[in-house]
Specification:
Number of strands: 36
Distance between the termini: 50 Å
Number of helices: 16
Largest sheet: 10 strands, mixed
Helix content: 25-40%
Strand content: 25-35%
Structural class: alpha/beta
Number of domains: 5
Shape: globular
């Protein structure tokens, strides 16, 4: 099957085509077109089809990931949203967790919860925590609310009623009434978006979905229609934040699941490299034009979470952003990319990012009207990028413009030379990324000792060694086609769908019939989503319970048998929970009641087979294709270093740093303290030289 993957980033749009038969991958990279992202997609697809000598009708599957949903949330460029709540609970968004994320900051900025208080409406109704109707829905009051919100110019409605995860009848009736009276409104129900206990998280997730749904529906339908007009009539699948693929219609209903869809593809690529190379502990480093992402991977599985935050007011402080409760590959993302803008403040301090030049106008060296100094401009000034070979040679960079920007914005204010200023920009952005990686590791209870790094993204291979040295990583792997790593990762992702549903029960009074009935319904719902995109691929099922000791605030995930539960499973479930608890906290708590809050079910296609790499052929020294002067580091300064063409390197080739390995869409920098070799999978493996000190 010939498959095409598309990843829209903030600066570039990446394309990867996997040819049927020989599994060869053909790639293309083009500038993102923010005003109409579909234009950039079509340009990139045209370039990739031409390189692969294919026609649009040869494509049998399209997989798409995008940062558009993330950007819309961060930049608050979505629909005008109203919320319908249970009477008496209007201020859930304002009350939040009843705590400040930084109790000592008297000028604290509260997170923007999107829906304004005047657009939070309530209706008389009430469900119990077990789903019993305590107060029927007042439809006359509902009609009055709908008239008010339409008069206020509302475009999208989020409905989040108390305990709707246990019984969604009232939420569904509200949607029916909206469709009857005001069919132009977009509607998101919390019982479908995030049917879990904890009303604040459930409400925030529903609001986020309602906020971006009209924008994403318009974009996705336009993309699907445009692809059909171009002759690509195959199914369109969307990458989700959890590392799986879903159908177009599901993505339109739940676009909040597309937040972080692009970066999750990179994590899937890194997981495949870990499996291929037999690496137990790995960190993936993805640096593009706008952001940098770091993800921890253990035993070829990326770290995952049920919750994350968007648009933090304080970059590294939990609780300062909008909480979203969806399946997500856990990573840290910061505004540190090739387009990140450098500036010197009134105190003479140099800073880089998070503001970005983006795709339009882009860095000064793009010669598209950008005048601000960026990370890419600093790399050009230091000699890391060949101006004539950028983007497969389709875009010649303006070295003079890059130098002028660096001189004006950094060198002159600091009274230093342009090269020293460019080196300062590089050091700041590298330290920003290293610091973000350290924070992520600490939050996860892990460190980077004995971990290896997989680097990709347009700028990842160029900065990976510099970041690795700062966090103590001694081996860096750059896979083939690293510049479009996330798009390549899409090709390895399964078609999947995860559902989490709340149903409270205890081990000593286990509701066996209720749990089995709920899991069976979840399975039917998941199959409806997965089967249309799975084709004839075999399916796998994964079930979990989220358990805790009574009175605790958070749950632990425990795997369930992949079948209906029987009475004998109840005792085994308690034993599995206590074993899991001991593995995390070194001890269990005897004679405590164990309760279950949520239940999860995932159905996915079986993973693509991965062949473990064998031993690389005997090492031989690689032949250099030329040389280039670049700023190696503060100790070495400017130096003439050898350059190598990656397309000419073969398994077993070896070279000593400092050096540059150049390919059509990116460049790999081999640091002075590292050697590099090509393994059997075509990966560049950079290893710290034995006995090399600081």
């Amino acid at each position: 099957m010939t498959r095409l993957a598309v990843d829209i980033g903030g600066t570039f749009t990446d394309i990867a085509i996997e040819l049927s038969g020989d599994r060869e991958i053909v790639t293309a990279k083009t500038s993102t077109t923010p005003s109409n992202p579909v234009e950039g997609v079509l340009t990139g697809i045209g370039l990739a089809l031409k390189a692969a000598k294919l026609t649009p009708r040869d494509i049998q599957s399209v997989i798409h990931g995008t940062t558009l949903a993330t950007n819309a949330l961060i930049e608050r460029k979505g629909a005008k949203v109203a919320v319908i709540l249970t009477q008496g609970f209007r201020d859930i968004l304002e009350i939040a967790y009843e705590r400040r994320y930084d109790q000592y900051d008297i000028f604290l900025d509260k997170p923007d919860m999107i829906a304004q208080r005047e657009h939070c409406y309530t209706v008389p109704e009430r469900m119990s925590s077990r789903g019993d109707i305590l107060m029927p829905l007042d439809e006359a009051a509902l009609d009055a609310v709908l008239d008010d919100l339409v008069a206020a110019g509302i475009e999208s409605v989020g409905v989040c009623l108390l305990h709707s995860y246990a019984n969604a009848a009232h939420e569904r009736r509200i949607r029916e009434r909206i469709e009857q009276r005001h069919p132009h409104l977009s509607v998101s129900l919390s019982s479908e978006v995030s049917p879990e206990i904890r009303e604040f998280d459930r409400l925030c997730t529903t609001v986020a979905n309602a906020f971006i749904r009209p924008l994403m529906e318009k974009y996705l339908r336009q993309l699907a229609e445009t692809l059909r007009e171009e002759g690509i009539t195959c199914p369109l699948l969307l990458m989700t934040s959890g590392g799986g693929m879903t159908t177009l219609e599901t993505a339109i209903r739940f676009p909040v699941r597309l937040v972080e869809s692009g970066p999750s593809g990179g994590a899937m690529l890194a997981s495949r490299v870990a499996h291929q190379c037999g690496i137990e502990k790995l960190v993936s480093f993805d640096m593009g034009g706008t952001t940098a992402k770091v993800c921890l991977i253990d035993n070829a599985r990326p770290q995952t979470s049920r919750r994350f935050e968007v648009g933090r007011a304080a970059r590294f402080i939990r609780g300062s952003g909008l909480p979203i409760r969806i399946p997500v590959i856990e990573m840290i993302e910061i505004g540190a990319g090739g387009g990140s803008i450098a500036a010197v403040d009134s105190l003479g301090r140099l800073s880089v990012g998070p503001e970005s030049a983006g795709a339009d106008p882009g860095p000064a060296c793009y010669a598209r009207g950008g005048l601000r100094a960026t990370v890419t401009d600093s790399d050009v000034v230091m000699g890391f990028i060949d101006p004539g070979a950028f983007a497969d040679g389709r875009m010649r960079l303006d070295t003079g413009a890059a130098r002028v920007a660096v001189e004006n914005d950094v060198a002159s204010p600091l009274s230093i030379g342009a090269v020293e200023a460019a080196a300062g920009i590089g050091q700041i952005v590298d330290e920003n990324m290293a610091n973000a990686a350290r924070v992520h590791a600490v939050e996860s209870g892990k460190d980077y000792r004995r971990r290896k790094m997989v680097a990709f993204g347009g700028n990842g291979p160029l900065h990976a060694i510099r970041v690795a040295e700062r966090i103590g990583v001694e081996e860096v792997i750059v896979p083939p086609n690293p510049s479009v790593g996330s798009a390549v990762g899409f090709l390895h992702a399964p078609v999947s769908y995860e559902i989490v549903q709340s149903l409270y029960t205890r081990l000593d009074s286990f509701d066996l019939e209720g749990v089995n009935r709920m899991l069976a319904a979840m399975r039917v719902e998941a199959l409806k989503v997965v089967k249309p995109g799975a084709g004839d691929r075999p399916l796998e099922e994964y079930r979990v319970a989220f358990m805790r000791y009574k009175g605790q605030g958070h749950e632990i995930e425990v795997e369930l048998p992949q079948r209906p539960l029987v009475q004998a499973d109840i005792e085994s479930l308690g034993e599995a929970y206590e074993a899991r608890y001991r593995s995390l906290f070194q001890r269990s708590v005897p004679r405590m009641i164990i309760e279950m809050m949520n239940w999860g079910l995932t159905i996915s296609t079986a993973p693509h087979p991965v062949t473990r790499l064998g031993e690389t052929a005997r090492r031989r020294e690689a032949a250099s294709s030329g040389s280039q002067q670049l700023f190696v580091d503060g100790r070495t300064g400017l130096a003439e270093v050898p350059t190598y063409r990656r397309a000419e390197l073969r398994a077993g080739d070896w070279l000593r740093g400092p050096a540059l390995i150049v390919e059509g869409q990116t460049t790999t920098f081999v640091g002075a303290r590292f050697d590099a070799a090509i393994d059997e999978g075509g990966n560049i493996v950079m290893t710290r030289k034995t006995g090399d000190g600081e």
